[in-house]
From TrEMBL:
It comes from Sulfitobacter undariae. Pfam families: NUDIX. CDD domains: NUDIX_Hydrolase. Keywords: Hydrolase. It comes from the Bacteria. This is 8-oxo-dGTP diphosphatase. The keyword Nucleus does not apply. The lineage of its organism: Bacteria, Pseudomonadati, Pseudomonadota, Alphaproteobacteria, Rhodobacterales.
Amino acid sequence: MQFDIEKYEGTAFKGAKLALYLGDYLAAILRDDKPGLIFADHWDLPGGGREGSETPLDCALRECREELGLSVPQEAVCWGREFRQEDHASWFYVAQLPIEAQNDVVFGDEGQFWQLMTEDAFLKHPKAVPSFQERLALWIAGRDARK
Ligand SMILES: Nc1nc2c([nH]c(=O)n2[C@H]2C[C@H](O)[C@@H](COP(=O)(O)OP(=O)(O)OP(=O)(O)O)O2)c(=O)[nH]1
């Protein structure tokens, strides 16, 4: 496991995502199929917008609790970094829990349903959020280079 978490220096950010592995599978969430919703009916990862002055990691873990009912301990997080676009920054983390944690999932009220998905299936899915596919691929490349 590669442990490489960029330090948060207090700069503004919009939100944070968590690629959460349960065993060898990712916890993926199918977004609602609503007109007007960005990436409607696309596979997403837990995460969302910042609340108050929380840190990016607190934001990712809070959103994961709200969306999947899972409390991921900070020690389970192995990778994280900031991604800057023209007008905003967001954060992307990777964490790992045992497969048994799937039994503790309580799905929240955003999205159609959740499911376990291989990382390959998420990366290749024609209807997954592209920027999260790219960020996940970046983490996988780093992980696999160290094998
Ligand atoms: N993430 C997500 N948001 C949804 C869904 N359906 C739905 O009405 N929403 C609403 C709540 C969100 O605040 C808003 C915008 O979603 P978004 O994906 O662009 O933003 P976000 O994750 O940062 O939102 P949030 O969880 O912090 O509220 O749309 C859904 O299936 N997934």
